[in-house]
Write a structure and sequence with these properties.
Two copies of one chain form a homodimer. The first copy, chain A, is of the alpha/beta class. The first copy, chain A, contains 15 helices and 17 strands. In chain A, the strands form four sheets. The first copy, chain A, has a nine-stranded parallel sheet. Helices cover 44% and strands 18% of the residues of chain A. In chain A, strand 5 (35-36), helix 1 and strand 6 (56-59) form a beta-alpha-beta unit. Chain A has helices spanning 46-51, 61-66, 70-75, 79-83, 95-100, 127-137, 155-178, 194-207, 223-236, 251-259, 269-275, 307-311, 314-322, 326-353, 356-369, and strands at 4-10, 16-22, 25-29, 31-33, 35-36, 56-59, 88-91, 103-108, 111-115, 122-125, 141-143, 184-188, 211-214, 243-245, 264-266, 278-279, 286-287. The longest helix of chain A is centred in the last third of the chain and has 28 residues, at 326-353. The interface between A and B is large, with 39 and 39 residues.
């Protein structure tokens, strides 16, 4: 099945401009993937996502497996058809949600056993099963099952989880070869330990995957620690494969990680924080819950290409958030994903022009300037 | 200010095709007004409402008065600008919500005193104050304050509330003349008592208003009782003024009321029931919560002009409703308002063609046929 990646240009900083081709279209990188946990990006229609220029969504294997069930989705023609989403989908392996959401989980070499957060049913997830589920969902990019720890964690724990993830990478690869799909990505683990990270990156690279992810970051460590790990791991990964930093992050995180050679991201921040009243903008975040917006007739960003950012006042958004109206969540989710998409597009333009360092400096300055006071 | 109404054609059944001109555009009648309680039709952007062909919204004076406050909305340029809604807005007087939502209400000749459902604050609403609030909101069509009773009610209670509503109509008219707006509608009360209804209709017609509403129906009485009252009151109202049946109803209610000479409607059914998993369709209602839809790949209506009804399967809608996802509410609200708009447009076409009786028979037959079983 069609899957290939080209690096079109590398900026002096290390930022890469690329193009990922999947059976469901091209993904221009660096790319941000909105999170569609239960087969929907909360609050947005698929049409709205298309209009925002989204080329790839993340689907959560854990949630879809429990409800409505991967076999049902398969019968209904796969996840793309089920959701009516014609573009690419990357699915995670379910491992992260097993760790964060389920009850009474038990991690063994063979896999993880857990109780569903929906009905308490006991479920087993193994590397082979995670591949099978993603295969039946019809994923364009499947992820290996891994074990992701919170930080801080002891070196012994980090080593154990990293080695388990490597064993699972190997088994995932063999399972994927039996039911091939467009692409399988490995996940580098090792916490905040540079030596473990180097070992993990070396072993998965030797195994050979269509792409490589960096997992187990943005889980409690300072930003500088995260960026040091990202920089070291990216440098240890093969240049010709896409690099995906999982679960990251703020606009600043994205720019800094792109500067260190990352090509793909997913994160719930723009959608989840939008539902909680926060707008991400060129001038930094704006908390619409704040009473100072109650009489402010200005839009979030009158120069935005996004109608939601341009056509509704801060006073109206504040009212919607205070009144707990769905439209507040819808408009702020739209505004945030539009900003994230615009940020990625601007980074691609800057890399193409060889001016990424200038772009990064200008973006930092704009965020630091902050939101202009109410007129 | 610009406001006029023309009856373009009257069908042999009594159904009327009309055109209402307001400062915010033309309203083709019979018209259905979606309810925008807190300055938003729950779950839809103003752009989506425009794409559905909605020409007029209903705004709730009670809710907007309590939050964000009518004076704030006035400072921000009025309700149209606050919401970014360029088309017409009818505002109710707040009386109905005072009766149904507030605590410790006290009705006196001077007005009503109540405690806010938001913070318990004591607020007074009089006919004059209701007009002032609607004036500051910038309403295209203001409604008089009235007292609406639940049915059944005693004849004495119905008479008292009807006479109070007439006294308030008179005071509303005088207040409106001091702060003129495009239009003020009176409300006919009298419950299920034909004699009281006739008296109420006669008195408000003698006073003279730009339009007349029928209130106090769909409050517990059988449909046949409602339609008998509608028929009698419509016949007693001046032919050259618009007639508005408040808070009604199901698709069948709308067709039957149009057949009795009603021009305008508002109702929460398509929006509220949509949020609770119900789709209104040409083949009657479909409850998407029902497990029989879990594996059904068919859309709600593949012949619909509405993308939400055409592009998403019943299985997907079922999943969204079961998973309590916002997108379920958004899509079903869209589907329902699209169906209501289509129903009104089809009625207007039938009236223009003089074939309303045929249309009514065909619509009844289609609803009775019901939803086709899963394939």
């Amino acid at each position: 099945m069609e899957f290939h990646f080209e690096v079109l240009k590398t900026d002096p900083t290390g930022a890469r401009l690329g193009r990922l081709t999947t059976p469901h279209g091209v993904i221009d990188t660096p790319a941000f993937m909105p999170v569609g946990t239960q087969g929907t990006v909360k609050g947005l229609t698929q049409q709205a996502l298309g209009e925002l220029g989204v080329q790839v969504l993340l689907g959560n294997t854990y949630h879809l497996y429990l409800r409505p069930g991967h076999e049902r989705i398969r019968r209904l023609g796969g996840l793309h058809r089920f959701m009516s989403w014609p573009r690419a989908i990357l699915t995670d392996s379910g491992g992260f949600q097993v760790m964060s959401l389920s009850q009474l989980r038990k991690v063994e070499d063979k896999g993880v056993t857990f109780r569903s957060h929906l009905d308490g049913a006991i479920v087993e997830l193994s590397p082979e099963r995670a591949i099978e589920i993603q295969h039946l969902l019809g994923s364009d990019i499947a992820m290996q099952l891994d074990e992701c720890l919170q930080l801080p964690a002891s070196q012994a724990e980090l080593r154990r989880a990293m080695q388990l993830s490597l064993a699972w990478a190997e088994r995932s690869k063999r399972a994927f070869e039996r039911t091939p799909g467009p692409a399988l990505f490995a996940i580098v683990q090792g916490g905040d330990d540079l030596q473990l990270r180097a070992e993990s990156a070396r072993v998965v690279t030797d195994m050979g995957f269509q792409g490589y992810a960096i997992g187990g970051l943005a889980v409690g460590e300072p930003q500088q620690v995260m960026l040091r790990i990202v920089e070291a791991v990216a440098a240890a990964l093969p240049a010709e494969r896409p690099r995906y930093l999982m679960g990251v992050g703020t606009p600043e995180d994205l720019v800094e990680a792109v500067a260190r050679g990352i090509d793909m991201f997913d994160c719930v921040l723009p959608t989840r924080n939008g539902r909680h009243g926060l707008a991400f903008t060129r001038f930094g975040p704006i908390n619409l819950k704040n009473a100072r917006h109650a009489d402010d007739p200005r839009p979030i960003d009158e120069a935005s290409a996004c109608a939601a950012a341009r056509d509704y006042s801060r006073a109206y958004l504040h009212h919607l958030v205070k009144a707990n109206e769905m439209l507040g969540a819808i408009l702020l989710t739209t505004i945030n994903l539009a900003y994230y998409q615009e940020l990625m597009a601007d980074m691609r333009t800057a890399i193409a022009a060889g001016t990424f360092a200038d772009f990064r400096a200008a973006a930092r300055e704009s965020w630091a300037r902050g939101d202009v006071a109410s007129s």
